[in-house]
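Researcher: Next entry: RNA polymerase subunit sigma (Siphonobacter curvatus).
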Amino acid sequence: MTALEFTHHVGHVSKSLRPFALRLTKDAEEANDLLQDTLLKAFTNRDKYADGTNIKAWLYTIMKNTFITNYQRMVRKNTFIDTSDDLYYLNSLESSTDNQAYSTFAMEDINAAIRVLDDSHKTPFLMYFQGYKYHEIAEQLQIPIGTVKNRIHLARKELKDRLSVYEYAV
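Model: Predicted structure:
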C-alpha cells in the first residue's frame, strides 16, 4: 500500500475513532489528545501495517494500547512510595495536627452574616438552630407557623448567598 493510499484509509477511518476515544477518556480534550497520539503512532509505524489487515481494527488497537499506556504512566506518576521505617505514622492521628484556622475564619464569616440578617428573620432562624420546633417558635413569637417557616427559609437563602464562597469547601 502506498503512503497516499494509507493516508486516505486512515483519514477515512479516523472519524470513527473519536467516539471510541471519548468512551475511553470521558473528556473531550483528552479524547482529542488520544486521537492525535493514535494517528501519530499510526503514521510513524506505517511500515508495520500489513496489507489486507483491517485498518480500522489496527487503529482501534493502537488507540486502546496508547490509552492503557498513558493511564499506567499517570498512575505511576501519582504513586507515592515511602521507603522509611516509620510507615505506621502515615495514617496515625496522633502524629497529625490541625490548627483550625480555616474553621475559625469560616465561623467568623458565618457569625457576621447572621448579624446582618433582619431581626424578623434572624430570631426564628436562631431559635430553630438552637433546637426549637416550628410550633414552639410560632407560640413564643406569637406569629403563624407558616410565617415562621417562611422567615427561616428566607434567612437560610440569604445566608447561603452571603456565604457562597464556602459552597465547594471541604
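Model: Note for the record: The mean pLDDT is 84.
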